[in-house]
Amino acid sequence: MEEILGLVIARYNYWIYITLMMVGLYGMIAKNNLVKKIVGMNIFQTAIILFYVSIGVKKGATIPIIEHSHDVAHQAVRAADYINPLPHVLMLTAIVVSVATLGVALAVAVTVYQRHQTLEEDEILKQIREP
Amino acid sequence: MNVHYPALLVIIPLLASFFISAAGWLRPVWCFPLAVAAMAGSLLVSLGLLVDVLLGIPGLYWFGGWPPPWGIYYRVDHLNTLVLVIIAAVGFVNLMAARPTVERDFPEKAGPFYTLYVLFVTGLLGMVVTGDAFNLYVLLEIAAITGYALIALGKGRAALSSLHYIFMGTIGACFYLLGVGYLYIVTGSLNMEDISRLLQPLHGSNVVIVAFVIMMVGIWLKMGFFPLHAWLPNAYTYAPSPVSSLVAPLMTKVMVYVMIRMILTVFTLDYAFLVLKLNDAVVWLAVIAIVAGSLLALAEKDVKRMLTYIVVAEVGYMVGGFWLGNRAGFTGAVLHIVNDALMTFCLFLAVGNIIHVKGNSRLESLSGLFRTMPWTMGALVVGALSIIGVPPTCGFFSKWYLLLGAIQSGHYGFLAALLGSSLVGVVLFFRIFEIGYFEPLGASHGPAHGEGGAAVREAPLGMLVPLWITALSLILVGLYTGEIVGRVIRHAIPEMML
Amino acid sequence: MEPLPSLKPLLAVLVSLGVVPILMSSRSANVREAWTFGAAGLKFLLVLAMLPTVLEGRELVCTLAEVLPGVAFRLRVDALGMLFALVASSLWIITSAYSIGYMRGLQEHGQTRYFCFFALALSATIGAAFSANLFTLYLFYEMLSFATYPLVTHHQDAEARRSGRKYLLYIVGSSIGLVLPAMIFSYHLSGTLEFTSQGFLPRAGSPVLLGVLLFMFLFGFAKAAVMPLHAWLPAAMVAPTPVSALLHAVAVVKVGVFCILRVLTGVFGLDLLASFHLGAAVACVAAFTIIVASLIALTQNELKRLLAFSTIGQLSYIVLGAALLSPKALVGGMVHIAMHAFGKITLFFCAGAIYVATRKKYLSDLVGIGKRMPVTMAAFFVGALSVIGLPPTGGFLSKWYLVLGTLQAHQWPMLLVILSSSLLNAAYFFPIVYRAFFFQGDQSLSDNTTQEAPLWCLVPLIITAVCTILFFFYPFPFLRLAELAGL
């Protein structure tokens, strides 16, 4: 029990992202309303973004900006002092991607609504089956 | 030849898509010519790269001059050059065939259609050419998002199917991204070769296993590998025909390529086959995919929907062939990426013609088509023979290698599945041909239902010519299999394969 | 001797393929048929032009492309292929003439399609005859299967549809399900598919594996109609009679037995078969087919179905000839390809001529028809003699060699099979002829006026009947080729 608790606390960022992912997945699978599904999808994507952001963090490190002062330039740069910026930069792209996906999904949902006058999936499927 | 070719391959259509989008607002007539120019440009560049590879010049490109592992780099080698040519060629030929349908069915959306079309091809080309794991994700999403939008252009159920595809596609892409994240945790690199180098001592790590499994599941989801195929049939069926004939042949094949690339270059064959020992299990999954895809295809009453299940079965061919883990299987899988793209392209084009003329592709509306649409049906026959695997069409040769691979590794389940699915193919297609040939059943014989009973009502020439170019290419590629395998694919096979 | 590189085999294959676009675009029936004749004549001349070289014992080759490592798309003309090509191409000319009479006489629909696919089927037949390896053979075999489907189902009615299904199920099902894996397995074992005089399969293979492979080939080439995969042939008789005549007495079924001959001689080699006692197994299957098919033929009332079962039996003679593993029997089997072709095509021509002239196809209606169609029935008699194997017809020669072969191989049971089958053949053919000439039938046939089929139908069947007799006296080219091939 202790061990598991320790594991949860030590890797709490992983547990958060996995929980978020599952919440998103649940929304996508279990919800009947298409917009709620889309919200679930967005939570799913955000979970992964958080995962990436969290892996760039280091304890006690600072933002990766090296000041252009004469005295610092002569010192060796210690990587451990700075958080890893790369995952964060990557996530800027991933955020753009997720926003684009969200946009397309919502636009398609609007089309679905225009065609079927509802966003409840079971009603849409009923309409399709009995035209 | 030109050192910038690998970059131009992606940049030409990427820039063109902006111009097409602008033209869509300002001068809609310019959209089509611009799209043609972009596709022709990509095709020429991809052919140039093929020539380079044949001459032994490596196609490497460092973006911004940053050497790997810092910068993104593009790489053309024996494995992906053929895939590039096929994507560009299918994109180009399909664009020609798309015009009559676009102009008739959704002329007001021509601008967005061509923009999305070119962007989709950009995404696919980029996925194949890139040597950077994260860049691959971005390009994957470019192809996917444009793909969703293109599919949603269809009528009726298309929007809902597209939405389902968005959900599943996003999960797949996110899984891939998650896998890249785990690899990044252990290696701190995104460059494929660099990751591979750094992974060597880490093969026992659990993180790497998690990364591998998550990544594979994501890729399989995107390629519609049974039982992760649920999104595929609806999305491809309800899409407008020019979209189905673009997305269906290419998207799944490119994902198969991505799978091969990831295992070959990033995880290495040692890891996949010797450390994890997943090969037998995955081949059995492929067997299930082939059998299930074939049987589900049998149950369909609509030709286009039937074809989508054939795509599901064919994915099983390639995944199984690769995971056999021997030279013949590998050759078969890579060759089948090329051949299957062409084959399914030919079939979807033919069905597109039928839909263009008849309005739908249900089995009952096919009656008498050999008389009214002889050219379309002729090409459909060629495509069908290739799917069945009749020489000299190209489908025979990739099946040959896959069967040989199955025999060499003693995997008789895979052998039986391949042969069985060929036989199911005979049933599937001859059911179509029977309806087209025999129906409507007239008086037994004699001059009663004589020649020219029903007038020929063919699709426009603009759709027939691309169709027949594709159909003839099936035979041509078949006859040049020796060259393709001997000069390109053979060099892509890693040394360690038996 | 070194094989001679030559383009002639390729041209011989392509000439009928090349004529298809012309046939399709021809506006008038006369132009179309003129082109058919042109192609048929040219094909025959091309084949004939290669004959002297082959008779000298040399071979011609034409390599097109190396499609798989060690496997090329290659044509090679040797004695056995030459023999078969000679039969098929010469009979195409005669059948073309007959087709014109038959199709016009019955005012059939879709004649353009008919002639196109006929030409395609002939290309595939010649291609199969000249195949240098198993892959090329398989290619043309499949091409022939699909090219003949529209011919078999020419009437486009429900019956044709059923027969077409049966045809595809048997032919394509067996070729994909059995021949393809067997071929790939052979390639896996030996790394090549090229026919050689002693076979290319390794001597060291396990007997069980080789036996399984052999039977996969034997049944896989279902066009040879070896029982139990024979049921497609009677079903395919719904086709117009010229199709039945050329394809189901000559081209299609003979391609089947030709493939089996090639596999027995070129893939396994007679020595290998002998050392594992595989020949006897094949001979038993063939003997079973011969006897059972003849017995079934006795019970048939429809003339074409009777001929179909007779064909099934006769085809297995050829398989038996090779399976006896003695040189004489092999020669007999090979010559039987030619002799049976001419005899059986005569019989089919007669059946078609009777149908065109009287619309009758059941034996019970043919009583007394000899008075109305004396020439046709005389030719029928000649054809029947040849199939039974009586002098003075060519059929006698091939049976003679087969009987000698059984003696040479000391296979007494097989001798019994051949002789009893001949008796059975006589038992189902002679009553037809006898009743046609010496019995009074129903009123419509008994008004004593001769009324033959149109000349386009009549002349071809006279020619083939005469040829059948001629080959008894001058069997030279066929016999010589068979001896060359048997060496």
Short description:
The complex is a heterotrimer of chains A (131), B (498) and C (487). With 498 residues, chain B is mainly α. Chain B contains 19 helices and two strands.
H and E order of chain C: EHHEEHHHHHHHHHHHHHHHHH
What's the shape of chain C? Answer: globular
Number of helices in the DSSP assignment of chain A: 6
CATH class of chain A: Mainly Alpha
- CATH architectural name of chain A: Orthogonal Bundle
List the helices and strands and how they pair.
The complex is a heterotrimer of chains A (131), B (498) and C (487).
Chain A: H1 2-10, H2 12-30, H3 34-55, H4 70-73, H5 86-116, H6 121-129
Chain B: H1 5-26, H2 31-55, E1 59-62, E2 73-76, H3 81-105, H4 110-129, H5 133-152, H6 158-187, H7 192-199, H8 206-223, H9 232-238, H10 241-275, H11 279-298, H12 303-323, H13 327-358, H14 369-372, H15 374-388, H16 394-408, H17 412-438, H18 461-479, H19 481-492
Antiparallel strand pairs in B: 1-2
Helix pairs in contact in B: 1-2, 1-4, 2-3, 2-4, 3-4, 3-10, 3-13, 3-18, 4-5, 4-10, 5-6, 5-10, 6-7, 6-8, 6-9, 7-10, 8-10, 9-10, 9-12, 10-12, 10-13, 11-12, 11-17, 12-13, 12-17, 13-15, 13-16, 13-18, 15-17, 15-18, 16-17, 16-18
Chain C: E1 4-5, H1 8-25, H2 29-55, E2 60-68, E3 71-77, H3 79-105, H4 111-129, H5 134-152, H6 158-190, H7 207-220, H8 232-235, H9 241-268, H10 270-275, H11 278-298, H12 303-323, H13 327-358, H14 369-372, H15 374-388, H16 394-408, H17 412-438, H18 455-473, H19 476-486
Parallel strand pairs in C: 1-2
Antiparallel strand pairs in C: 2-3
Helix pairs in contact in C: 1-2, 1-4, 2-3, 2-4, 3-4, 3-9, 3-13, 3-18, 3-19, 4-5, 4-9, 5-6, 5-9, 6-7, 9-12, 9-13, 11-12, 11-17, 12-13, 12-17, 13-15, 13-16, 13-18, 13-19, 15-17, 15-18, 16-17, 16-18
How is this structure best described in words?
The complex is a heterotrimer of chains A (131), B (498) and C (487). Helix content of chain A is 72%, strand content 0%. With 131 residues, chain A is an all-alpha fold. In chain A, helix 2 (12-30) packs antiparallel against helix 3 (34-55). The longest helix of chain A is centred in the C-terminal third of the chain and has 31 residues, at 86-116. The N and C termini of chain A lie far apart (57 Å). The relative contact order of chain A is 0.12. The model of chain B is unreliable at 443-452 (pLDDT under 50). In chain B, strands 1-2 form a two-stranded antiparallel sheet. Chain B has a domain at 322-443 and 452-498. Chain C is mostly helical and 487 residues long. The two termini of chain C are 14 Å apart. In chain C, a hairpin with a 2-residue loop joins strand 2 and strand 3 (71-77). In chain C, helix 15 (374-388) runs antiparallel to helix 17. Chain C is built from 19 helices and 3 strands. In chain C, strands 1-2-3 form a 3-stranded mixed sheet. Chain C has a domain at 277-487. At the B-C interface, helix 16, helix 17 and helix 19 of B face strand 2, helix 5 and helix 6 of C.
